[in-house]
Specification:
Elements: H1 4-47, H2 55-74, H3 87-115, H4 120-126, H5 130-159, H6 163-169
Helix pairs in contact: 1-2, 2-3, 3-4, 3-5
């Protein structure tokens, strides 16, 4: 028989492992997107004689956004219990998280500005003008990144725990309830 302390530890450890995997996958997904955008920005700037690289910033930004998203999920941002077609809860989550991430990113900019000994007015002024267009473009791009992420999440919730992942990573016929889990019959034979 296991001691009570180790039995109580197991769910906490399992949850920590699951959250670690989730943040790693989400950070990887966001890193690929942010790195691709930074690569495009570097290519455009290179054409104008400006040579820059942002690769370290991409992984930090991806990890920070991933943590923000997991924080939002912990606070149940965008959750609702309607039985709508899956597109509506997906879009609801996308827009709720878009606002949530915009607020947290603005707070991040303020904190960075204060660390760099800039006033709030300087931080706000820096975020307007030509940077405003860049920020709006980033909002649209983040929306496009969040749509597939939340579409898969909503679909996974609808199908049940772990089923979508198993469907992607194992034999899809094992989940074909119309055939009782049997592989398809070749009708041509």
């Amino acid at each position: 028989m296991k001691p009570a302390s180790s039995a109580a530890k197991a769910p906490w450890q399992r949850r920590a492992i699951d959250e670690g995997k989730e943040i790693a996958v989400l950070t990887g997904y966001l890193f690929v997107v942010i790195a691709a955008l930074n690569f495009m920005k570097a290519a455009v700037l290179h054409d104008h004689g400006v040579h820059v690289t942002y690769w370290g910033v991409a992984i930090v930004k991806a990890a920070l956004l991933a943590k923000f998203i997991l924080l939002g999920r912990a606070f149940k941002v965008g959750e609702h219990n309607q039985r709508d077609p899956l597109i509506w809860p997906t879009l609801h989550k996308v827009f709720a998280f878009l606002v949530f991430l915009m607020v947290l990113t603005a707070l991040e900019e303020l904190v960075v500005g204060l660390i760099e000994h800039r006033s709030i007015a300087e931080v706000v002024a820096r975020s307007s003008g030509h940077r405003l267009m860049e920020m709006l473009a980033n909002v649209v791009l983040m929306m496009l990144v969040l749509i597939p992420y939340f579409a898969f999440q909503v679909l996974a919730e609808h199908l049940g725990e772990g089923r979508l992942v198993r469907m992607f990573l194992t034999d899809r016929h094992a989940f074909d309830h119309r055939r009782g889990g049997e592989p398809p019959v070749d009708d041509a034979a």
